[in-house]
Amino acid sequence: MAGLPKTVFLQRDTYRRRRIGDAIKLLPIAGVVLFFMPLLLGTPEQPAQTSSLGLFIFFSWFALIGMSVFLVALFNRTPNTPRKAEKLSAEDPLG
Amino acid sequence: MSFNLLILASLGYVVFLFIVAFVAEDRAERGHSGWARSPWVYTLSLSVYCTAWTFYGAVGFAARSGLEFLTIYLGPTLVLVGWWWLLRKLVQIGKAQRITSIADLLSSRYGKSNLVGAIVTVLAVIGTTPYIALQLQSVSLSVAAFASNTPLGPLDVAKTTGIWVAVGLALFAILFGTRNLDVDERHHGVVTAIAVEAVVKLFALIAVGIFVVWGVADGAADIKNRIDASEIAQFNVDNSRWIGLTFLSAAAFICLPRMFQVLVVENEDENNLSIASWAFPLYLAAMSLFVVPIAVVGLELLPEGSNPDLFVLTIPLTQGADGLALLAFLGGFSSATSMVIVAALALATMVSNNMVMPLYLRAQNIGATVSGDVRAVVLVSRRLSIVAVLLLGYIYYAVSGGTVALSSIGLISFVGVAQVLPALIGGLFWRGGTRTGAALGLIVGFSIWMYTLLLPTLFADTNVYSSIVGDGLFGIEWLRPYALFGVTRLDPIVHSVFWTMLLNASAFIIASICSFPNPVERLQATTFVNVFDLAEETGGWRGAAIEAEDLLVMAQRIIGGRDAQRLFTQVARKQGKEGYLPDITPDFITVLERRLAGSVGAATAHAMMGQITGGSSVSVEELMAVADETAQMLEYSNQLEVKSAELERTARQLRNANEKLTALSVQKDAFLSQISHELRTPMTSIRAFSEILREGDVNGAERARYADIIHDEARRLTRLLDDLLDLAVLENGQVSLNIENARLEQLINRAIDACVNSSSQMHIKRNRANEAIMLATDPDRLAQVFINLITNAQKYCDAPKAELRIRIADLGPSVQVDFIDNGSGIGVAQQAVIFEKFSRLTDHARAGGAGLGLAICREIVGKLGGTIEYLPGQDGAAFRVTLAKSLP
């Protein structure tokens, strides 16, 4: 339904969540750059070493996982929708 | 290590898995599926990606081509860390549409098309069968590796193992995969068992890795030296292979039927995906951490020519670490079995839902009566499908005899299932993708894959095919399977990926653009592409269980109120219930949908049946109805909005009108009281003096004075009445204007001459140069306005040296005439009312008028097409008359 009105201004939390989503979207792009980096290294006469490139790839791999952990934690910590947040606080007066 | 121990351990492990699955299933049934739904179990279940090919084959791959094996893990890593792009949407759609398999997804997206579903199913079966064979082969090979000292030869052992493994797996899959027809197609027992297997294989591989690095070699530094000294020391990776294989593994990760099963179908909570987005890459990294060390040490230790695919097993065996070898065997066994179970389950669902059931239903429709529980048929067909799939795998294994290297079959299979990708991505993000496009793309991709990859590999030894590979089909050189259109620089796998993806996607796009989708396709396209928007709109509905009332509403819409109600009452009475709403049973839905077919045609009913066989009770028509309803509600609410805006506008207008009327009424009252007052004052004095005169005892001088007073008062009355008349005429619009051209200067002269007499001390300042403006106006009326303004200034200006400035501003089409005195001006509160009738600023005596002057001025100027207003902030009272130079 293309005609659905889209909200222009969002609640702060919703906005934050979307931007974290954007950051998560960037991760695979960063991953592509890192994982294809080995192709750019070494020369035909002196190819890169398996051992050092292996270390590089695993390092990139863990860095990517770390970023993902961080962003997902950030994402899950940001309240989902204001409506839900209201509902929660209504149910639990202490929260 | 004794062979019997191995068999005993394996059997024990299998029993353990059955118990795990049984307990999980039992708990889920009793509603305690808490931990089975946890993100960790979900993440571990994704490890069906890591098959025996990964467990054993990755080391072989690394031993052959170094780091290149990593591409198989990097692709899925990219897909998972980028879950926001694709997986999130896929899972959302899977939930919203109750998708049961990847074939179901495409079939549902492309208008519930059985054709697309069937093509995907065939593709999946052909692509997966060799892969299942591969798993059987790997288990057999690994058993054979232990069997060197048994009375049976390794080959016999392998064959027997293959059969028993296939039978055991079929049993497991049937037992826990088709126990009942779940509404949501989730299999807690299977998923939990797979999660346990995932732990076992990771643990086993890491244990072997640690043994190799710290047991056989001398720690990490030593391993690095050994790698540098080995034959895979250099990173000799072909660029196209690195990129192509990464892409391929990413595509396969999404498209493999078994991956789709665990990733989407078994997903219970979207949140699980966010955890898996990093946890599964971590799992993959851990799985691949020790692959190169194991490969290098294996190449070093084991004799030339030993199978690198079995290094994981043979290194511990040759080093005498029997326990570790057993663990490694169980790891490989886990990898193989979990893959086969899920793949068989996924394929069986596809085969039964997209091929068997449509055919069965069609056959039943032709017959006069349809009776019985469709669910029973579905279960039977699924069970038979599982058996058939495993049988097919076994036959393939038995026939091919394990000739092809593990990794090559794995990649070939990947390319096959990746053919689904264009239709999948296109279906998720492009509303324009149509059934024709999807079917054509799939067929094109599938055919090219068969021609360029599968057939050359399978029939490489036959004369016919080797000649085709060498010289091309019919001797046409640019049709050579490994060098299509003369592309010779790519390795066969990447070559096939390149051409299949390119031509598949092109066929999909072009055919989609050229064809026109039917309504269901368009509806589905919208629901898929905009799944997040729609979930917000109708979120509560789809998640909820289907209600009899919803069905009644839908049925009434299709077959009419009376018929639908009669049908529902009948069914309810049969079930022993009162009223219109029976329980929703498969029988009832069958009856209802057969009835619907009579009204809306078999095609729709067919699609509805397809939905039931898909395990979901939401039918096309209902989706249509929901979409329809949503659209209607949207339209209705839009209309309401428009209407309410209109009402608001009308109400505002009415409010304004009311305010005006109230004000007018107040004004009228005030006017009446004012006018009586104004009339009464002179009348009173006239009466009083005329009475004195009548009595007669006044002298001549007094008489003359009284007569003067009477005369003056009478004149004042006349003037007042004149003014009133004038105003009434003006207000009623009955005035006739005498329009001629006049010079502004002359008009002002005339006005000044009329007002300024010897008694006046007011000094008038003008700039005559500005006054040379011709106006088309009524000169007499306009002069009257000016006179009034000048007279007012004379009356009210309280400055010791009174002064009036007449300022002219030529604005082109109009002209402004300002009358500004140097008195104290008019207070803000009074500014608002000075143009009203009878508004007088101070005392009556001084004014000497009835307070109608400015009201008349306003009417006249209005009639002349101009405005008169009070001009604040001018150091005195100031009035601005704006006049058009020519009347409209």
TrEMBL record, chain A:
The chain crosses the membrane at residues 20-41, 53-75. Keywords: Membrane, Transmembrane, Transmembrane helix. This is Uncharacterized protein.
Automatic annotation (TrEMBL), chain B:
It catalyses: ATP + protein L-histidine = ADP + protein N-phospho-L-histidine. Keywords: Coiled coil, Kinase, Membrane, Phosphoprotein, Transferase, Transmembrane, Transmembrane helix, Two-component regulatory system. Residues 674-887 form the Histidine kinase domain. Belongs to the sodium:solute symporter (SSF) (TC 2.A.21) family. Its main location: membrane. It comes from Nereida ignava. This is histidine kinase. Its EC number is 2.7.13.3. Pfam families: HATPase_c (PF02518), HisKA (PF00512).
